[in-house]
Here is the input.
Amino acid sequence: MVEQILSVSGLKKYFPVQKSFVERLLSGKVDYVKAVDGIDFEIRKGEIFTLAGETGCGKTTTGRLIVRLIEPTAGKIVFEGRDITHLRGEELRKLRRRLQIVFQDPYASLNPRMRVGDAVKHPLEIHGIAEGGEAKKLVLEMLERVGLTPPEQFYNAYPHQLSGGERQRVALARAMILKPDFVVADEPVSMIDVSLRARILELMLELKRELDVTYLFITHDLAVAKYISNRIAVMYLGKIVEIAETREFFTNPQHPYTMALISAIPVPDPKAKRERVILKGETPNPINPPSGCRFHTRCPYKMDICSVEEPQLLDIGNGHYVACHRVS
Ligand SMILES: Nc1ncnc2c1ncn2[C@@H]1O[C@H](COP(=O)(O)OP(=O)(O)OP(=O)(O)O)[C@@H](O)[C@H]1O
Ligand code: SF4
Ligand SMILES: [Mg+2]
Here is the structure.
């Protein structure tokens, strides 16, 4: 039987929209951005589970909810069989050691006034794992492990002295030094030079094998998702519309939105033709998402029922889940 490490059910995050006093007075109500609007999935121990989808669909919010950086509006998060949705204080602090996140932007996630060595050492100190010379030794080993050599030189450097790729290696070192069980990697290669991406992804795969860690990998780039994932889930406007094993996902996509995303991946061989599904219009506003299926305003296969009834995420076999009236 496949062992689950994490599951979420009915997970929601609504952010109140900031309004001026006059706007509030005129509208008389608070509006919410429905960033994550009722999602369910489980992640198996040791796998790389990817969340994909266009900008603003709720990927980062989901990652931040899971590592408990933000409070959910509703729903449940279970980690290793334990409900962690409302953990606080010391219990939450202990959990943080095991659940780490690598942020989307390595420039913003490192304190510019903190030397690299101190930034990587900090988690060891706050979790009481090591201090002084012992902590420094662990940091130097980790810097070397993520390819920042000679490690002594990087230990004393400031973030602004590093390239984007080096900063992302520091962010990985900082997350991995605690030997976590679960890491949310939020677009870890999107801000670095294309030529360096494969090397960073390779490093992440090596660390995963060595440290026996499970990843929730977040990307808007399906070519990256194909390279790294065991399973892929696609989000659209705060909802999950499809989940499948990577091979099944690319050979047998069922949701029209997934099909459109796959068809937009550049083909390396210009002679290899692929039919491109062009989506109409822009992504709708998450404050007031479309009724029924949220994708109906852009879907080339829209039927009458689609704007009325919301399709549920259903198992169509082989662990493949789809939320579309055309499929159910
Ligand atoms: N703190 C916040 N306050 C208000 N709205 C927010 C906040 N964080 C995110 N949002 C909104 O929630 C929605 C989802 O944002 P999120 O950052 O999760 O998307 P994403 O899929 O990670 O996008 P990207 O690919 O651009 O990183 C967006 O409409 C965003 O503007
Ligand atoms: S439910 Fe209807 S609108 Fe939504 S993806 Fe399926 S066919 Fe398209
Ligand atoms: Mg994001």
The mean pLDDT is 92. The pocket of iron/sulfur cluster (ligand 2) is lined by residues 255-256, 293, 295-296, 299, 301-303, 306, 311, 324-326 (CB under 6 Å).
